[in-house]
Design a protein that fits this description.
Strand 15, helix 8 and strand 16 form a beta-alpha-beta unit. The mean pLDDT is about 95. The two termini are about 15 Å apart. The chain has about 350 residues and is an alpha/beta fold. It contains ten helices and 18 strands. The longest helix has 13 residues. Helix 3 crosses helix 4 and helix 3 crosses helix 9. Strands 3, 5, 6, 9, 10, 17 and 18 form a seven-stranded mixed sheet that branches. Strands 13-12-11-14-15-16 form a six-stranded parallel sheet, with helices on both faces. About 25% of the residues lie in helices and about 25% in strands.
Length: about 350
């Protein structure tokens, strides 16, 4: 038996339950979790903002150790430390053919197939985002695990599976921040903290952090922000005042709300770049006038998984960690047990803290 946090229905509270996890089949791997990050995407899955068949075991940002491998699996063996990859690319679809594995048409297929059963009643369970990391152990496709490079602590490595790949990629791939450029980051949660560190690594000059909670200031400054601003109606004006009156070269939005996306756009200079990382609801509409689109010449782009290729980017991130440029532990503001995940959801909704980490 394996203990897991189970979502019985959309908007239902998570419940800790024993589940029956099968041995890995052909091409599969069984992983014992060391830790799992509590990401806003898990909250979006639980409340229906993102679609997920239920009942399900959520959790997609995790790291652990291989327990066993199924037939045909090569390159992985029991005892290997690994990071879960919730969006494994198939390598064969249209988007993979374009060299854009983060948009893979088949990356989410595993989430739609039952992977385990409730010990009580035998109901089939679905894996949240294909990984089901809110459990002591999980079974995933071999393509959904990445070998953990040497020199990276296994527990904190869970953050590499989503927050860090997303934040680093937003800076280095989507926005392509250049040395000396000014960057403003909206939202200082787990991903926002990764964005701030990545902007510092990229050599950005002025790095502004914006959040609704004044309590986030210390976290933001430690991550690399040069200034911290409490969000408000005049935030674009205050950003311009700190960037020579022009606005930031780059804005990265990590909240996923129409008003913050609009504020991020308005905070960038003419010709600036706005990258949207946050996941919002389909009914939350952002409006622009036709004239301002022409006049400001800004670029607005979405960003999926940091536009990252995990197999390529994970060794790069490991190099930054070993060199002391990237501090995973600084992003973790709470270490919790499975039972505390609902409280971590509440903290995210209230805008408190950075990343909560479930430690097994």
């Amino acid at each position: 038996m394996v203990r897991a946090a189970v979502l019985s229905a959309v908007n239902a509270p998570l419940a800790i339950a024993d589940i029956e996890l099968p041995e890995p089949g052909p091409g599969q791997v069984r992983v014992r979790l060391a830790a799992a990050g509590v990401c806003h995407s898990d909250l979006s899955l639980s409340n229906g903002t993102l679609r997920q068949p239920v009942p399900a075991v959520l959790g997609h940002e995790g790291a652990g150790t291989v327990v066993s491998v199924g037939e045909g699996v090569t390159g992985l063996a029991p005892g290997d430390p690994v990071v879960l990859n919730w969006a494994p690319s198939c390598g064969a679809c249209h988007y993979c053919g374009l060299g854009e594995p983060w948009l893979c048409a088949n990356a989410g297929a595993a989430a739609a197939a039952p992977y385990a059963k409730l010990a009580s009643g035998g109901d089939e369970l679905y894996p949240g985002l294909g990984t089901a990391a809110f459990a002591e152990e999980t079974v995933v496709a071999a393509s959904a695990v990445l070998p953990l490079p040497d020199g990276v602590p296994l527990t904190e490595a869970a953050l590499l599976g989503c927050a860090v790949l997303t934040g680093y990629g937003a800076v280095h791939h989507s926005a392509a921040v250049r040395p000396g450029e000014s960057v403003v980051v909206f939202g200082v949660g787990g991903v926002g903290l990764a964005v701030l560190q990545a902007a510092r690594i990229a050599g950005a000059g002025t790095i502004l952090a914006v959040d609704v909670s004044p309590a986030k200031e210390e976290l933001a400054l430690a991550a690399g922000a040069t200034e911290f601003l409490v969000a408000g109606d005049d935030i674009a004006k205050r950003v311009r005042a700190l960037t020579g009156g022009h606005g930031a070269d780059v804005a990265i939005e990590c909240v996923g709300r129409a008003d913050t996306i609009r504020a991020a756009w308005s905070s960038t200079r003419r010709g600036g770049r706005t990258t949207v990382v946050g996941i919002g609801g389909k009914g939350d509409v952002v409006s622009f006038s036709a004239l301002e689109l022409f006049h400001f010449g800004r670029t607005l782009s979405g960003c999926v998984y940091g536009n990252s290729d995990p197999a390529r980017d994970l060794p790069v991130l490991a190099g930054h960690i070993r060199a002391g440029r990237l501090d995973l532990s600084a992003m973790v503001t709470e270490r919790i047990a499975l039972e505390a995940i609902p409280a971590a959801f509440d903290a995210m909704l209230a805008g408190r803290g950075g990343r909560a980490l479930v430690v097994f």
